[in-house]
Amino acid sequence: ETNLKYYSKRTILFIDEIHRFNKAQQSVLLNSVENGTIILIGATTENPSFEIISPLLSRCQIFVLEPLGVKELNTILERALTKDEILSKFKIHIEDRDLLFLYSGGDARIMLNALEIALKIVKPTPENEIFLTKEIISEAFQRRYFKYDKSGEEHYNLISAFIKSIRGSDPDAAVYWLARMLLAGEDPKFIARRLIILASEDIGNAEPYALTLATSCFTAVDYVGMPEARIILAQVATYLASCPKSNSAYIAIEEAIEDAQKYPELPVPLHLRNAPTKLLKELGYGRDYKYSHDFPEHFVEQQFLPDELKNKIYYRPTELGREKILKERLENLWSKRKQNKKVNK
Q: Where do the domains of the chain lie, and which CATH numbers do they carry?
């Protein structure tokens, strides 16, 4: 404030890892940012949408720093090999730089740390030469720590990629993202729970066995634990990815919930009501209800929805997998579905 008042200069405040500030600490900055006392520059490795309070975020400009490209990584590597106090003492031969760049994921620190580990694995020759083969580079990266925050953005990115790969019927991508999560230390039971949800939401009655298998997967994973649980998860993930897909059940319940919220007090039709007493029977409860098992094929067409929704169709089976059989059966049973079939032709 003194700089601004007497020298007409604003103070630049740089906060590294700003996501570590809690909400109360971030709120303290608001007034100074808003009145122009400070120019706030914050750096974070997390998603600011999740970690920075909305009032502060709305007053800031977001700049996304992308991973370094091959050209930039190569420049940094050359600088390290020629100017670093220790590395410059050796003549280092790297068999496959592209592999080094690929494993680094565009992060120069990861690349340099892996290089340091590699140099500890290999002993220099009498001529002070060091040869880093593909195998040495791979081993160096395997020894490094996998960056993975179970409550952070990458956690949600990986499980999202995994689920979407299964939904998209790509077992190869599914098993890759599964491997990424397991290597990073993800809880296998968390993955198994998500498979149970997916089995109903994205496969449903196109392959009803998917839900049984996914549920068994959770039990098996709970029984055996890691590392063997990886095999069970891979089996189920690849099976679910290979199954025919249908979200008809998911759509049905969503539309039914919408109508239930819109019409929360529609009366149950009299013939469907429970009539345990003489009085209720006299009032017409249960009257004219037709017991399905008394009719051919154990079915008789009657109204089960309230009058206002009597022709509503929530469940619309697809033509895929076993759901096709259900669709044909329902169209043969219900006149409203027969009519709907004619309209859609």
A: 2-57 (3.40.50.300), 70-143 (1.10.8.60), 160-242 (1.20.272.10), 268-344 (1.10.3710)
